[in-house]
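Tutorial handout. Part one gives the primary structure; part two gives the three-dimensional structure as tokens.
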Amino acid sequence: MKILIAKSPWEVYETPIEIFVERILDEGYDAAEVFLRMRRESMKEIRRIMLKTGLPLIAQIGTHGDVPEDHIRSLRANYEQALETEPLFVNSHTGRDWFCFDDNLRILEAAEELASRHGVPILHETHRGRAFFALHLTVPFLRAIPSLRLTADIAHWFCVHESGLENQRESLSFVMDRTRHIHARVGFGEGPQVSDPRNPHYKPWVERSMELWWIVLDRAEKAGEKTFALTPEFGADYTPLKGILPEPVADSWEMNSWMHQVLVEQFKKDSR
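Part two.
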């Protein structure tokens, strides 16, 4: 299975996509993952830049609104916009944590219908505030719609459940079978991102994350997947500040660069 390491411009929102892509090419990334709603460039321009550089694109979108019908409408509009960039797949922040099961299910069913019609997969990210904000509440959706596939941002679940998920092995196993993309950020019991993964204090959380990522990749390969993408995703918004100073305790780009190298050493050296 071929491993792709992607990069998001999360820390450098204001940087033009063309400059961002040139930078990640220089640093050896294999793909870009871009939240399209945050971009000033048109979808046509983003596609032109990606074609010029030869980097594949993972398109990020989100559903929005006060009621489920708003989320279904925004899902359709954002997905159809994402198609203009010809992405590998679409990664979606879908639904809301406070919607009931049936309402979130309707949104997810609409997503599956779109993906089936257009042929570009939609993966749904495990994220606080969204339909898949908690591990044990994700499983019923996967049972209801067996074709659903996920982007695993397990760091959020470490925080939500205040654990490394050791006490939810059956649910975790079920979810990992259906994961086709990983956001490689390290969370811990009190937050969705450690202050710096290079700090020895967080070594157990880094090791637990790696353990789970290995399982996901192994199962995806056994399921016949030919390509799998991981995106280091330490973000400036998640990085704590130094006391009363408006200065982060660590540089997000540096943390992502460090994680990039770890992922290459751990997963990519033997990919095929």
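Part three, for discussion. The CA atoms of residues 68 and 136 lie 22 Å apart. The longest strand covers residues 2-7.
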